[in-house]
Amino acid sequence: MISLTNEEHDRLAALYRYDILDTSPEPQFDRLVTMASHFFDLPMALVSFIGKDRQWFKANHGVPFSETPRCESFCTVTIAQDDVLLIPDTTLDERFHSYPAVLAEPYIRSYAGAPLITPDGQNIGTFCVLGAEPRAFSTDDQNMLKAFAEMAMDELRLRQALLDLSQMAMTDALTSLPNRVQFRQRLVDACQRADTSGEKVVLGLLDLDRFKLINDTLGHGAGDALLSEVAHRLKASVASSDLVARLSGDEFVVLLTDVRSAPDAERVVQRLQRMFAAPFLVGEQEVFVHWSLGLSVYPDDAQELDVLLSHADTAMYRAKRAGGGHTYFQAHQDQRTLLEVERLAALHHALERDELRVYFQPVVHAENHAVVGHETLLRWARPSGLVSPLDFIPLAETSGLIVPIGRWVLWQAVEALRTRRVENVSVNVSAVEFRQPDYVAYLRELLNLGGVDPRRMWLELTESSLLEPHFASVLREVHALGVQTALDDFGTGYSSLTALATLPVQMLKIDRSFIMGIGDDTTAGQHALEVMRGIVTLANAYGLTTVAEGIETQVQADLLRQLGCSYLQGYLFGRPAPLP
After folding, report:
1. Which of 87, 94, 106, 571 is spaced 20 to 30 A from 524 at the CA atom?
2. Using an 8 Å Cβ cutoff, are 177 and 235 in contact?
3. Torsion of CA 537, 541, 547, 548, to 10 degrees
4. Is the distance from CB of 540 to CB of 564 less than 8 angstroms?
């Protein structure tokens, strides 16, 4: 056991800050050890980190185990110095000749290792190469090994920066609770576990009653302080396996997992009631907070997660209309409004009445603003006026009408490509469409009929669609056609930033909510710019093309070009409009 001196305590603290031990293999580190093995013409290369009592391999080329006791590690000696450790023949070095890895598999005879040095001077690990034969190392070899170690540290720092950015992008700045993005990711995970265990998930939307009065009378600073304390009490009311998140303003969400029956949820509600019975102290003012809570149950009320959230929202407003408290979603009470019923009936006839329109919005190259393609956007022109897509697309999805409507949009896109009115086109695709067993066959037939190169078409899918496991085979078939896929509205759905590596897409469309503050000479503007810098850096690292949506000013366009964004889209370059 290594004794913990003050210096060793500081070194371990520096290592643990990177949160790297026992993580899964990552390609950026694996590539480095493979390159080093080939460059030095040696069978083994490692990126290793030295913990309290073990050496653990983050990247491993050729070594038949993943860690070793620290007392049997060459690299323990390496980190005790700032220069490269060279061992031309381990059997002739009394420090190492009795090591198990020398006497048995993999029979290490030569070693060269450079320490991985943090910016504050802590040696947390090594980049090393090893051979099964004696080997002399030249000065050039030492310099190259140092270069490999520096590259490994660069990758480690980038990884840490991206993890920090991911955490920042998934956390509410005011309350430190998970935000909407992290909540959606956790909701997906919880429902997947429930599918396996047979248990339930209870989703609760909680809205503070008359919170505006607090802001108006005591000021926004007091309102923020109250929201932080509310967050603390909410978190104290649920189990560690449950989740409390802040969605926006005074709206919170409670996610109860592994629930067997309604009484389990009722016990949590009772704890919430007890926690909020005592007043809050805002400055020197006592404030009593009341809330309205709507609950929906997975999978009883809905299996589509957005529908589940909508049901909780509907139940919450019913509770608010009743004066507060909590209530569960009840299908017979929470039916569609008369307006929705009328719209749904009209939507059934929209195609035959020629009321649907496809508008095209240009996408331009960030460097020269040349138009490189267009996105198709659906509009519904009723005799009474245009209906917002936010109002009729959800109706189309829940009713199944999105399938014939989506196929009509695909045909319009192919026709625009065939007539060369657009060079490339992207089409938004609903998860409902993607679930159709003949979707790929229909797409193939359309492209063949139009005589269109499939590489000129992109399909834009949401994160929730891409994360559905059974969609993987459909995506493979789409890619086999030559059609590319894009992750639409990145940052508003389920995945974290680091999940991008596993999503089967070639393009990242960054939601306009990330763009809005860019160019503002404010703290929020600087924050927005740094978040965008991290997203673009990560996308580039994964070889993804980026499109920034919602560009409205030249300043935004210039800043995004400087960040390395590939393409831009927004009112600055053209509003959605029919093709001539």
Report:
1. 571
2. yes
3. -20
4. yes
Q: Is the separation of the CB atoms in 222 and 282 below 8 Å?
A: yes
Q: Which long-range contacts (CB under 8 A, 24 or more apart) does 536-539 make?
A: 536/560, 536/563, 536/564, 536/565, 537/158, 537/162, 537/564, 538/162, 538/165, 538/497, 538/498, 538/500, 539/500, 539/508
Instruction: Enter the pTM of the model.
Output: 0.53
The one-letter amino acid at 547: V
Say how far apart CA 315 and CA 327 lie, in whole Å: 6
Contact 429, 488 (CB under 8 A): no
Does position 423 have pLDDT exceeding 90, yes or no?
Answer: yes
AA letter at 91: T
* Dist CA 365 CA 545 (whole Å): 11
For residue 254, what is the DSSP state?
E
Residue 1 predicted with pLDDT over 50:
no
Contact 578/357 with Cβ under 8 angstroms? yes
Using alpha carbons, select from 273, 272, 201 the residue that is nearest to residue 241. Answer: 201
Residue 54 to residues 50, 141, 327, Cα–Cα distance (Å):
6, 27, 54
What does the buried/exposed string (b/e) look like for 241-264 if buried means 16 or more CB atoms within 10 Å of the residue's CB? ebbbbbbeebbbbbbbbbbeeeee
